[in-house]
Specification:
Blueprint (H helix, E strand, L loop, with lengths): L3 E2 L10 H13 L9 H21 L6 E4 L2 H15 L6 E5 L4 H12 L3 E5 L9 H7 L4 E5 L13 H10 L3 E5 L11 H4 L3 E5 L10 E5 L25 H39 L3 E3 L10 E6 L4 H10 L2 E2 L15 H5 L4 H5 L1 E5 L6 H21 L7
Parallel strand pairs: 1-11, 3-4, 3-5, 5-6, 6-7
Antiparallel strand pairs: 2-8, 7-8, 9-10, 10-12
Amino acid sequence: MPRFYFDHNATTPVSAEVLDVLVPALADVYGNASSIHQIGQSAKQALERGRRRLGDLLRCGWKNIVITSGGTESDNLAVIGAVRASSRSSKHVVTSAIEHPAVLKSCAALECEGVAVTYVGVGADGVVSPHDIKRAMRPDTVLVSVMHANNEVGTLQPIGEIAAVAHESGALFHSDGVQAAGKIPVNLSAFGVDLYTISGHKMQAPKGVGALYVRTGVKLMPILHGGRHEQGMRAGTENVAGAVALGRAAEWCSEHGAELEFQLAALRDRLERGILSRVPSAHVNCAGSARVPNTTNIRFDGIDGEPLLIALDLRGFAVSSGAACSSGAVEPSHVLTAIGLTRSEARSSVRFSLGRGNNEQQVDALIEAVSESVIQLRRIAPVTVHA
């Protein structure tokens, strides 16, 4: 049975062009980038090439990029590192109710240290209002953290406006860009962000490498303790091969991103139209909002999402009920309840996230599989919608 992958927001396959540079880097560029001998300096050069390519994609200075192990570490370093570095005696953080757990749990950790945190809600559109952020600001606010694109419903946040609000009050602004970079144009210089998170495995590089953009002048207290790697912000011998791979992935996105964005938006729209026309009582969550082009989150009244995932998997389709990082959670998605869905409505929602490997034939086959599976589940395992 052929298998088709529609879960690219969870992770992406490593692309052929990334493998072409990753394998030689693992085999040949084995030096420590901090060593002064020729082998070490060859590794240093490869590391910096990867950093430069990522800087080109993000439209920012390459020297402002700190290589990390991935999105979670970058979020932790940004949120915890920025707040701990503040010299204020009283500290307050503003974030949103729809952030990734890497941000939410970093904030929870800060609360255990006595830091006050305000979690700003969203409406049914899944968009964080700059006005709500402004109302949440306090004289002791040191950091605002709002994601660029939501991982579950795909909504894009007005990070440029929110950054301006934060700066008006003298606070730093961090954005988790894990689900945005490589899918839409990102111009960090224009956005005015202070800190921005990237993850390699969301853009067809391998797992275990990511980055944090740190604007010049922003102070962070390291969360890893050891050598003075990455300008003293991230201890540990750098993952040179990972940085090479991330740089190549960024280079591909710089060259082909506009074309890919158009293709994915067309496929997503085809998928939504097909499902809504074939499946009664199906609803696209946050349909009217600006979203990344590859993501749709659809609610199917009268069924539970988990049996639908299993039914689709048996038919050869990999999809998701939400954030893969929260798989196995008993509670419904915090994002979907934040936009106003009931617990049962949230559980009846499924995320489809497309990528480079998908095409119209796969989308049409998925539409057919969803239609047949929902009809069957509504017949044999109906669910009553309640709060």
